[in-house]
UniProtKB/TrEMBL annotation:
Domain Amidohydrolase-related, residue spans: 53-376
Pfam families, sorted: Amidohydro_1 (PF01979)
Protein name, per record: Imidazolonepropionase
Compositional bias segments (type: Basic and acidic residues): 154-164
UniProt region (Disordered), positions on chain: 146-165
PANTHER family with a match to the protein in the record: ALPHA-D-RIBOSE 1-METHYLPHOSPHONATE 5-TRIPHOSPHATE DIPHOSPHATASE
Domain of life: Bacteria
């Protein structure tokens, strides 16, 4: 049980905190009041001179499945033996000892989504977890949290270069349709006992049943439009991951009731799909009222630069409050875990960060990161 006194900062919902007392019990926020008595037995932490924010959230990472600094042995994020691998699960490849988790904690990142890579048209299930722990199952707060799919250059390159489908964008879309139709057929036949279990089709069935969204890697505007076409055809929930050219078609995206993950915008333009990359994407999506989050796509950009990315978004015109929500509350909503994380509110997990000043000043740093009320 902890009492954080003299708290100043923000709660993630847009509300400023000033001289606030925050009580924490059983890993959750139990009181957030400007005047509050502290019960006996509480450890008191004086936050005078510090700046409080909720724990940061990166919605699109490969932490633990693409380990840093060890080369091929740490590359467990793309099962490239086939273009369609919905049967694989990111949780089975996560190594909690990956250095990236420690880097995340030091940077105030308390929750991440870990997903397969984008080599395959369908790459497998993903999960959301806290960034502290030694056993992946005990770190998880949502599993599965989505099914990974990818359009564009990556699946074409990984599989087309090996002489197998897809070799074109038409082929990518055709494979997605075939797999969704196959899962529809499988679900009906399995209900009537006419077919044996098929793990991959079961996972796609979760998308069709709207248990989880299809989270689709799409950079170019035409690929985004194709993905939204599939959403209409199959009536599924989905998110757009990266959305690099989203600014070109933001009003069209807004018609489809989806959220998007934008980034990693700090990268160079390493391929054709990134030619029109820029921070203006966030501004256009905001103007069109499309919910968005900011991501590093760790380790494409190191996870310690999630806050740096938000700072740069502000530099190029995004309001500071919206930039913070893009890595806290809106990120939690993107992942479907906003009942637990994303803001400092009574009943939610006590994940928060104490900084030595406003984190939107790049000179300021994390002093302490807490997850479930514990200093990590």
């Amino acid at each position: 049980m902890k009492a954080i006194t003299n708290v100043s900062g923000v709660d993630g919902t847009g509300k400023a905190l000033r001289n606030t007392t925050i009580l924490i019990k059983d890993g959750r926020f139990t009181s957030i009041e400007e005047t509050a008595s502290i019960p006996n037995g509480y450890e008191v932490i004086d936050a005078t001179g510090k700046y409080f924010t909720p724990g940061l959230i990166d919605v699109h990472t490969h932490l633990g499945v693409h380990e840093e600094g060890i080369g091929k042995e740490g590359h467990d994020f793309n099962e490239t033996s086939a273009a369609v691998t919905p049967q694989v699960r990111a949780i089975d490849g996560i190594n909690p000892k990956d250095q990236g988790f420690a880097d995340a904690r030091r940077a105030g990142v308390t929750t991440v989504q870990v997903m397969p890579g984008s080599a395959n048209v369908i790459g497998g299930e993903m999960c959301v977890l806290k960034t502290t722990g030694t056993i992946a199952d005990e770190m998880v707060i949502r599993n599965p949290s989505g099914l990974k799919a990818a359009t564009g250059e990556n699946p074409k390159r990984f599989h087309g270069d090996k002489g197998r489908m897809p070799t074109t964008r038409m082929g990518v879309a055709a494979i997605l349709r075939e797999q969704l139709i196959a899962a529809q057929t499988y679900m009906e036949e399995h209900r009537t006992g006419k077919t044996a279990r098929n793990l991959g089709l079961e996972h796609i069935g979760k998308v069709l049943n709207k248990e989880i969204p299809l989270r689709v890697h799409a950079h170019r505007a035409d690929d985004i439009v194709t993905v939204l076409r599939l959403k209409r055809e199959f009536d599924i929930d989905l998110t757009i991951e990266h959305c690099t050219e989203g600014h070109q078609i933001a009003p069209f995206i807004a018609k489809h009731d989806i959220s998007v993950s934008v980034g990693p915008t700090m990268t160079p333009r390493s391929k054709i799909e990134l030619a029109d990359k820029g921070w203006n994407t966030l501004l256009a999506l905001a103007d069109a009222s499309v919910p968005f989050s900011i991501t590093t796509d760790h380790p494409v950009i190191a996870i310690e630069h999630l806050m740096t990315s938000a700072i740069l978004a502000v530099k190029y015109g995004l309001p500071e409050e919206e930039a913070l929500k893009a890595i806290t509350l809106h990120a939690a909503k993107h992942l479907g875990v906003d009942d637990r994380v994303g803001s400092a509110e009574v009943g939610k997990d006590a994940d928060f960060v104490l900084w030595d000043g406003n984190p939107f000043d790049l000179r300021n740093k994390v002093l302490q990161t807490y997850i479930n009320g514990e200093l990590v």
